[in-house]
TrEMBL record:
UniProt organism field: Nocardioides mangrovicus
Record's protein name: 3'-5' exonuclease
GO terms of molecular function: 3'-5' exonuclease activity; nucleic acid binding
All copies of domain Exonuclease, residue ranges: 19-190
Secretion signal, residue range per the UniProt entry: none
Coiled coil: none
Length: 210
């Protein structure tokens, strides 16, 4: 039996009047069908501000081996996660962060794909409104279009004069992404006074890699 679907907020309002959940995940690899989550980090954006007190972060016991490529990026080994909870044990914590909010992530196809599967296993329907900071970098002319590659979040943050928080750790990358999101959205708002959350999501869609 399906449980209630995760809600999407009303987007036909000023973008600052909507809540956003900025997410980053680490995984066993990038095979969207087989690899799984091993780390989740998120922070909420409310009223146009990052709320550090809302941070959520936890590691997850992998259900398959961690690839060498993934391990060299995030540094997490299987033995490091022996005492971590299994994915099914933390799904409610993920839902609590995402429900009723717009998903924000850098190269958001990764987070959306890896979060959809455990939510589906928990019988929670999820069709999120998404803002991709990589797409916003292209929309604002701060990253080139047509390259087939996503801009690096750390390089982008430094270019914007922002802090980089513990790279390649889920919570650190979520915090960096949240600050980049606010900088880019403020820039778009200057170009498009009255920017709504609906228009912000649309801009992201228009500049997302296909």
């Amino acid at each position: 039996m399906l449980k209630p679907a995760l809600e999407v907020p009303d987007l036909d309002v000023a973008w600052r009047d909507v809540e956003y959940c900025v997410v980053d995940v680490e995984t066993t690899g990038l095979d969207l069908r087989r690899d799984t989550l091993i780390s989740f980090g998120s922070v909420l954006v409310k009223s146009g501000r990052v709320h550090v007190s809302s941070c959520e972060s936890f590691e997850i016991k992998p259900s398959r081996p961690i690839s060498i490529g993934a391990m060299t990026v995030h540094g997490l080994r299987e033995q490091d996660l022996d005492d971590a909870p299994e994915l099914g044990q933390v799904t409610d914590r993920i839902v609590a962060q995402l429900d009723g909010r717009v998903l924000v992530a850098h190269a958001a196809w990764v987070e959306r794909a890896f979060l959809t599967r455990p939510l589906r296993a928990a019988r929670r329907r999820w069709k999120p409104a998404v803002v991709d900071t990589a797409a916003l970098l292209r929309a604002t002319g701060l990253a080139p279009s047509g390259t087939g590659y996503e801009p690096d979040i750390e390089v982008s943050a430094k270019h914007l004069g922002l802090c980089v928080h513990t790279p390649h750790q889920a919570l650190g990358d979520a915090l960096t992404t949240g600050e980049v999101f606010l900088a880019l959205t403020t820039k778009l708002e200057q170009q498009q006074p009255g920017l709504t959350a609906h228009r912000l999501v649309a801009i992201s869609d228009e500049h997302t890699l296909t």
